[in-house]
Design a protein that fits this description.
Blueprint: H1 5-17, H2 19-110, E1 117-121, E2 124-132, E3 135-145, H3 147-163, E4 171-181, H4 183-191, E5 195-197, E6 209-210
Helix pairs in contact: 1-2, 3-4
């Protein structure tokens, strides 16, 4: 309700002349200001509370996501461990099969019984090695043969000649046992006179070379 000009004049005069009235009005105005500030503060508190609730929900989602990731990592570790175990068992089986088949074929073709095993020369492993009389057999076993393994075998033989010549004999059979061999690998094996075979047949001819 708006004051008339006369009422405003009396109000202003009372403020000027009546000290107690002036203090009362000042106090009233101060309370209103405080109330206004409190209203604004309450509104900000509501907004802050909403923001906190939103942040809490996001944290919950983040924790759930982290838990899911940890669970996935643990499952992956288990799967990786199982795969590694399977590969190790498979490799061992191939090596054992390779030594058995190669020994049988050498006995059949060359009439020499060579007991084969795995050896290490300067911490480098050789899957297939054996010596009998003047003959030694040196080779590798693999699931899939590529040209790189042919080169690796030749390098291992050269390393044996340098550091462990006592392992060699007058004649040598270089061999690789493989389930599958690429055409490039077979071509490289033929040039290097490496005998490549699988359980049921030869993939390159058996060759016997002089060691020195």
């Amino acid at each position: 309700m708006a004051l008339t000009a006369e009422e405003k004049e009396r109000f202003l005069k009372a403020l000027e002349e009546d000290k107690e009235f002036r203090y009362a009005v000042a106090g009233y105005l101060g309370v209103l200001e405080v109330l206004k500030r409190l209203d604004g503060l309450e509104e900000r508190m509501v907004k802050l509370e909403r923001a906190m609730v939103k942040l809490w929900r996001e944290q919950v989602k983040l924790r759930e996501g982290v838990a899911a990731i940890r669970s996935g990592v643990n499952a992956l570790k288990k799967d990786t461990g199982a795969i590694n175990t399977t590969l190790e068992r498979l490799a061992l089986t191939i090596e054992e099969e390779a030594r058995s088949v190669v020994r049988h074929r050498v006995r059949e073709r060359l009439n020499v019984d060579v007991e084969l095993d795995r050896i290490f020369v300067d911490s480098v492993g050789v899957n297939i090695y054996g010596a009998a009389g003047d003959l030694c057999v040196i080779g590798e076993a693999t699931v899939r043969l590529g040209p790189t393994l042919v080169s690796e075998l030749l390098s291992k033989i050269e390393a044996i000649k340098r550091s462990r010549p006592d392992l060699l004999r007058g004649r040598i059979v270089k061999v690789i046992y493989a389930d599958y061999a690429t055409p490039e690998a077979l071509e490289a094996a033929k040039k290097a006179k490496v005998w490549v075979l699988k359980w049921d047949k030869d993939l390159t001819p058996l060759a016997v070379e002089e060691s020195w």
